[in-house]
Each structure stands twice: as structure tokens, then as C-alpha cells.
Specification:
The complex is a heterodimer of chains A (477) and B (250).
Chain A (H helix, E strand, L loop, with lengths): L1 H21 L5 E7 L7 E2 L5 E2 L1 H13 L2 E7 L1 H9 L5 E2 L7 H4 L2 E3 L4 E10 L14 E5 L3 H8 L1 H4 L2 E5 L2 H9 L5 E5 H9 L4 E3 L6 E6 L2 E3 L4 H16 L2 H10 L3 H5 L2 H4 L2 H7 L1 H33 L4 H16 L2 H16 L5 H27 L2 H9 L4 H31 L11 H12 L2 H30 L1
Parallel strand pairs in A: 1-4, 1-5, 8-9, 8-10
Antiparallel strand pairs in A: 2-3, 5-13, 6-13, 7-10, 7-11, 7-12
Helix pairs in contact in A: 2-9, 2-10, 14-15, 14-17, 14-19, 14-20, 15-17, 16-17, 17-19, 18-19, 19-21, 20-21
Chain B lengths: L7 E12 L2 E12 L3 E5 L6 H7 L8 E6 L2 E2 L7 H5 L2 E4 L11 H11 L5 H14 L15 H13 L5 E5 L7 H16 L3 E5 L3 H7 L2 E6 L2 E6 L1 H6 L4 H11 L2
Parallel strand pairs in B: 3-8, 3-9, 6-7, 7-8
Antiparallel strand pairs in B: 1-2, 1-4, 4-5, 9-10
The chains are: A alpha/beta (477), B alpha/beta (250).
Bound molecules: adenosine-5'-triphosphate and magnesium ion.
Chain lengths: 477, 250
Amino acid sequence: MLKKWLFGLASLVTLFSFNLTIQADKPHYTITTDATYAPFTFQDKNNKYVGIEQETMKAVADREGFTYTMKPMSFNSAAQLVSNGQADGIIAGMGVTEERKEVYDFSTPYYKTGVAWIVKKDSNIKSLKDLKGQTVALKTGTSASEYGKSLQTKYGFKIKYFNDTDTMYNDVVNGNSAATFEDMPVIQYSIKNGIQLKIMNPKSLGNAGVYAFAVEKGKNKALLASFNKGFAGIKKDGTYDKIVKKYLGATQSTFSGSKKDNSSIFGILNSNKSAFLKGLWQTIELTVIAILLASIFGILLGIMGVSEFKLIRGISTTIIYIFRGLPLMVLAFFIYIGLPGVIGIKIPAFTAGIITLILNEGAYTGAFVRGGFEAVEHGQMEAARSLGLTYGKAMRRVIMPQGIRIMVPSFINQFIITLKDTSILSAIGLLELTQTGTLIVARNSQGFRVWAIIAMMYLILITLLTWLSNWVERRLK
Amino acid sequence: MSDAQAKVKVHVEKVNKSYGDNHVLRDISLDIAENEVVVMIGPSGSGKSTFLRMLNQLEMPDDGTIVVDGFNISDKSTDINKVRENIGMVFQSFNLFNNYSVLENIMLAPIETGKMDKAAAETKARQLLDTVGLSEKADVSVNSLSGGQKQRIAIARALAMEPDIMLFDEPTSALDPEMVGDVLEVMKNLAESGMTMIIVTHEMGFAKQVADRVVFFESGKIQESGAPKQVFDAPKNERLQEFLSKVMHA
Ligand SMILES: Nc1ncnc2c1ncn2[C@@H]1O[C@H](COP(=O)(O)OP(=O)(O)OP(=O)(O)O)[C@@H](O)[C@H]1O
Ligand SMILES: [Mg+2]
């Protein structure tokens, strides 16, 4: 035993010093992953991302001498970011399919898997035939969901889509959906962790397949080669088997915290303090920056909206029409996932989130700013003009100061909406308060307590924001 | 024409104006001389306001010519802001700037148009406040004033630009009866000082007393015009007779 340790230490030291010598030209990659896919990737009680994939990636990188930034997000975003070149590789329980081979180049598979179909523990559903007319919960974009969907016509069930595993499971546990399809190791891990579900086909998994690491087709050949070489290495020396054993043999408290930590709101708050604080801070940052910039953009749109020139008014109306009309999430996806493919520039999630908020909240702001200016009594403008003031001067000196006063309540309202809208940005993987909640629930399955904490935090933020706004409003008067 | 007394300040020729199918002004022609006080009367909707508002281009005529102070303002290329500096206007609903104090209301235009610096504008404003008898109100908010006070401030505001023509659109119609006198008093003094004034009003007594000429509008036309004595005491136009019998016995 001691010998083994010493040997390990020695090899670590060699590896380390070797690494040092080549550090200068160590390649660096951006790898995406599915943030809520235990046991492959998930956050442990210290809010660190762990799991079979995380440890495998680390072991491979150490061995092959490259570094990487891991970006956990939803599976869909993770996959799209690689396919449009914004990230270099994805390790996210991605099953190898013919269809995906058109878009990605896959590594040697690191896990054999198959799709299980799953029902509530005390459910009386016996076979797939019993699902007729019932709802089946699926997770968007996964191969398990494709398998589930392929059975839809045959067995006549309805499909409901989810973005993360945990919400999907809970939908079945709560009885909203009758069944779900999920990759075998994933559901095994969750059942081991006490989720009240049972596997219906342990012996005859559907669509048996493999998980592999992937890069955009034809790109990042060096990364793919490194992964293959490194993975062969850790497979051979037993590292990989150890990793798998560690996770599939793990008990719940090892990763998700002790029972005591999870049995009260205070315990959860305490054991996830840093995650909550980080999420809270990210939400505050997004809100403050978005409020400032969206207000500037909105006031500009509003001023353009009352310009004496028809063309400028038209531009303002069009911008407001477009960005007020688009759902925030569509806009976020468009900017974060759609746009980079066309303009060829990577847009970090935070920037994409801020741009989304500026455009959307700014359009709303523009509409009420214009409305506020228009609400100023017409006679004020006529009086100013009759005295020889230009349109611009009359606007600036007479109309706008009065209009702004009318708008103050709308501004406060818009600030609160902006704060709430930041939660939608969890969809592009921003680790704000809502996404933080999703991640913690994915680990400890304490939906009620965690969401109660998150809700309280939003209410406190909104209260503070309202106080601040009212204070500013009083000072303006 | 060389006679200074007969110098034409406002020349209106064959002006027409329609709002959709509503032909509001029909072939109106009218000349107004310097120092003249013209009072316009007529039933509601006859086009008096529309006519008045054309004289400083708050409305644009469909056709015809309007020359004010030598500027052709029916021509879109004329710099209207410069012309407006010389035409004061007083509205029925006062339209004082709600976001400024009384003094600031009066000082705003001279400063913003670059006509005066701040100090000069303030001196001028205080002097005008004195003229309209409201010196003690300099620093109050305009919303704390009574209607009569508001209208006198509005007149002071217009005068601050030192205009040579003043337009009044029913300046006393929104006032309580006991306030009317103060405002008319200010206007009377102004007329006596030689200001060229065009006034739309229903105050027939005031018209008789102050007007050099009374113009009767009806259905978008000038039906009759002349000295007040003639218009009020010996109206020739049938509609004018009808109108006068209504307002005099009201
Ligand atoms: N901006 C406008 N758009 C459409 N119609 C208008 C507009 N302004 C005035 N009118 C119409 O033009 C006609 C003349 O209006 P105007 O205000 O000049 O009458 P007036 O003689 O001043 O009446 P009053 O004594 O009631 O003030 C009316 O029929 C009125 O409805
Ligand atoms: Mg009128």
C-alpha cells in the first residue's frame, strides 16, 4: 500500500516537473459539459464539478499535458457551442449516433450504455403498452430522448420536454408524467441516491450505445488525438476503472452532503453558502449592468421616437417592435448560439446575457419613455415653439424634464422586471441565482427547500431595489 | 407705402386650410398695420384659432401667402424660429412650463434663443413681473398660481422676447370672471404702448374699447370687418347681426 502511494507520488512529481518544462506551449482548450448529469458531471457539496467525466477529463489532460476550461451548462447549449466552434470539445454523456457523426468527430467511447425506461416506484404500469395516452418526460437533445421519441407512435404516448434531468425525474415522481427515458448509469446513480423511481428494462436496455468525447467535425484533431491517447492510458493503468467505481459505488452523502445538511433550510443554506452567494452576486451584477445600459439604450430609443424626423422615428419604432416582440430566451439563444456562427466571434455567456437584456429591456424602456414624452401636454410644446425655441431645445428644456417625471414609476417597474428576467439567462448557462438553484437541486434533490431559499433571495433583492428606486424617486421630486 | 404709420406688419393673401373634408379657412385675405389692434370675433368653429395659429406657423396653410414682419412664412424654407422670436403668443390654456418657476418661465426663451445672457434675462423678467403686477411671485411654482395670475405670467413670458406682434387666442376664456379684469388691464396697457396685437376674444366690451378694427369670422370667411363702432352698432352682415344678438344678450 505504502509502496503504491510512494510510486504514485513519484510519478506525480515527474509528471509535474515534466509539465513545468513544457508549460509555455501547453495547449489550452474550452470543454463544455452538461451541468446536471450525475454521475458523469454534477456539482458536489462544495460546489465543485465532479463526476466520471470530470475526473476522466482531468486524468487525460494531466497525462497528455494540455489544460482546459470546463464550461458546465445545459446539454443542448453545450452541444451547440461545440458544433458552431465556440468551444473545442464536449464531454457530456453524448451518445454516438450516425446523425451526430455528421456534425462531430468522436473519440474512443469511454462508457457503454443503453436507455432505460423508468416509472414511479409504486406505479402499476407494467409494459410500454400501458403508456398509451399517458405523458412521457424527456430531456431535450439527448439520445435517450430520441429513443423514447422513436417509440412514441408505436405506444401512443404524449411527450413533454425538459431541460434538466432533475426536473424531469421529479415530474415522474410527482405523477405528472407517467414515465421517462434515461441513460442507464444516470438513472442507476439517481436511484442509488434515493429517488423514488424504478427501472423497467434492466436486462434489455434500448438502443445500446456508447458515450464519447466529441469535437466539431474536422476540427481540433490534436485535441481528439490527445484524448484518445490519454484515455487509452488511463484505461490501461486502471485509473479509469477506479473513477467509475468511485461514482457508481458512491453513497449519496459523499457528494450531496449529509442528511443533516439537507434536512433544514438553514442546513442547506450553510452547506451551499458559497454557491448561493456566487449566484446571488451574478444576479446582482447582471441586474445592475443591465438596468444601467438598458435605461441608456431605452432613453435613446425614446428620444428617437419623438424626433421631428420621420426616418429616425421609424428606426426607433422598428427596434422597439422587434426586441419587445422577441421572447427573451429566443433572443438569448440567438445571440449566444446563433450569432457567433455567422459573425465568427465568440460571445461569452455573460456578454450575451447583458446584450440580451439591453435589447429586450431597452425596447420596453424605449416604449414607455416615448409614451412619457408624448404624454406631456401638447400646449407645452406649442408654447415653447411659439417663443422661437427649436424643436430640439423645446424637447430638452420643456418636454423631456416633464416626461421623465411621468416615467419614474415605469422605470421602477422595469428595474424589477429586469431583475426577474435575469433568471431566464440560466438557459445559456449563466450561473446566476436560478441556475445555482437548479444545480443544487440536481445534487441534493431538496427541491422545496432550495427553491424556497432562491425565492426568498429574489424577494429580498426586489425589496431592496424597490426601496432604492423609491428613494431616488423622492429625491427627484 | 413709405408712410411709417401704414407699414404692413401682417399680410395674408388668399389663404386656404382644410382638415380632411373640413374646409376651415376659405380664401382669407387680411392686412394688419404696425401698431394696429385687431380683434377677431365669431362663432365657435369658424376658424379664428386656425387663422391666428397660421400667423406663427403653428399651422401651415394649404395655399395662399402669409408675410409677417417681411418674412414669407407660408414658404417652408423660411427659418421660422427667427420669425417666431418676434411674435408673442398667448394661449387660452396658458401653457406655462410646469417644470420651471415663474421667473424661469419668463427667462427661458431669451436665454435659449441666445437673445440675452442670464443676467439680462433676469433683469428683463423682473421688470416684466412688475409690469403685470406679480413681482412677489417670482420664485413660486407656476402650479400655485390662480388662472388670472398664470395668464399675466404667460403674457410676461411672451413679452420677454421683445416681440413686435402679439397674438392672443381667447386669453380670458378659461378664467373666473373676477380674474378677467386684471388680464384685460395688462392687455389694454400693452395696446396703449403701441404693440401690434391680434386678439381672438368674446369680450365685446374690451373689443369696443381697445380695438382699432374688429373682424368677424364665420364659416371660414371674413364676413365683415371695420371699426368697432361700425361693426357693433351698425352691422351689415346678417350673420354678424345674428351673432351679436346672441352674445350681447347672453
Ligand atoms: N388639428 C385639427 N385637426 C382637425 N380639425 C381641426 C383641427 N384644428 C381645428 N380643426 C377644426 O377646424 C375648425 C375650426 O377650428 P378653430 O379652432 O379654428 O375654430 P375657432 O373659431 O377658434 O373656434 P372656438 O371659438 O371654439 O375656439 C373646427 O371645425 C375644428 O374642429
Ligand atoms: Mg379657438
